[in-house]
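Q: How would the structure tokens look for this protein?
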Amino acid sequence: MLESLRLSAQTSSPVQNYINYLHDKYINLKEGNVADYIPELAKVYPDWFGICLASVDGKIYEVGDTNQSFTIQSISKAFAYGIALEDNGLDKVIDKVSVEPSGDAFNSISLEEGSGRPFNPMINAGAIAVVNLIQGVTPEQKFNRILERFSQYAGRALSLDRNVYESESKTGDRNRAIAWMLKNFNIIEAHQDPMNAIDAYFRQCSIAVNCRDLALMGATLANSGTNPLTGQVCLEPKYVTNVLSVMGTSGMYNYAGEWVFRVGLPAKSGVGGGIVAVLPGRLAISVFSPRLDKLGNSVRGIAVCSDLSANFDLHLFNAPTSTSPIRLSHNASQVSSSRLRSPIEVDFLSKQGQRIRLYELQGNLTFSTTEICVREIVEGVKGIDFLIIDFKRVLGIDPAACWLLANLFENLTESDSFEVVLTHLDSVRPFEDYIQEKCSDRLSQKVKLFIENDFAIEWCETQLISRELSPLHLLEEFCPLQEQQLCVGLSEEEIRCLHSFLELRSYSADDVICHKGEKADEVFFLLKGEVMVVISLQDGKQKRLATITPGMAFGEIPLVGIFERTADIIVPRHSECYVLSKVQFERLSVEQPALKGKILTNLCRILFERLRKANKEIEFLCH
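A: Here is the predicted structure in token form.
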């Protein structure tokens, strides 16, 4: 099971990690034999092994012999069926080929009683009838149409493996017999030469592909018929469902029933060693391994697809939507914390804040949705030192998503300079438990947890500042009056004069300086420590609006009028302030009007900077 897998740091992509793991897991699986009824297929190296996964938006994960060429064989039947549907329409194709599982071997000579129709397009009789329906009179004309369309699916020019074609043609008498039988029942009509269809069929099965090609061909079906890399429409969307349906019921030879029961994905296998499986709207999986079981399916291919489906919950009948779970993403230069910082720190964070990035997740996290999220993070992690993941709006998370995220965090934190920070983890208790129980001690100790994003961003900002600026800068505990923001531009004489109007006060941790609703009649100059401006929410929790640090003023409302306090101001740790009362400020207005004017000018500048910051963040968040 997925929970027992050892997390790997080979790559920053958990999906790539997992298919690497599957490749390692089954590389020594030597069961099965290569197909030998076609002499040329008997010559292939039995231990080639490639795995490829392609998403509907064009992301490809691959490992092993994914560029090794092999012949497509019976996998071609599914894609040829789509061509016949486009060339003739559904009704005419159904009139010639049924869509019922046969329960017989793929090369059985059996037709529907009465109609003479082949049971479905995935057995040889049905596939030959399908090829006969494809536009073209000569075998060359039919094959050229097939090859052109298959190349569009693969996103590159494919070609015929002539040696395999000639070998199939020399040993294909059983298929010729099937073609004549179809002629007898007028499935191949009187004016048509059945040997044209059979020759085109031999060529179709002998098209050379690789594992990556098959994954893209499958992803094209998953993407409603459009190649996710080239944007080429390869099959009309209305026929994609028909193709996937027959793949689901008949694509895996006599194993089709158990396949859909256990794996639950429309799929098609071929005796060349390939398997392609499709999860509509999301992804495709292809595996190439020539060792076949007694039914003609790749042994390793079935094992890999079974593990992927089970561990990543890919079964078609349990398929959630695969929209991105990322609600919002921003860095700390776009939206900073509520901690009001010194001009030096503000300037530094405006330039370096992009090294802190936050992702807000939402909805249900499954393999397919989380894979999108993980991919975006992996692709955007360059230049990032701090990654914050917010789980507040996550409704649920399954084991596959837990594994993907944990693996991602394990990889990222391999660097001692990279920090992963998680917020609102109480919303997804299973993931918190997963980290504690299933992940390495290093990861569980390395990941930082915060209740809210604001505190997480603040912590990251402080860490970044401490790395790049002088550590002493963050340890400044006292800011004298002449360095206060409200005192910018004041002369020494004006500072001495202002000092005579002020009262020094000390506050202990947890003191409340002001309560919401109280009359605002004092202004505070913070000399030492810090204070927080908070409001109480309906659920009883407190929300921080700002953290004030030495050098800053708070409670400035009395400078511009008579109002009530709109929030509580609390003291997290011992702090010292100068206090300018409303009475003293009015006295200052009379005795030192120029000094008052400078203080109000500074206040306007400070409020303008705060408003500009707020407007910038609101504009970004509402964009």
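The chain has a mean pLDDT of 90.

The first helix runs from residue 14 to 26.

Upvote if useful.
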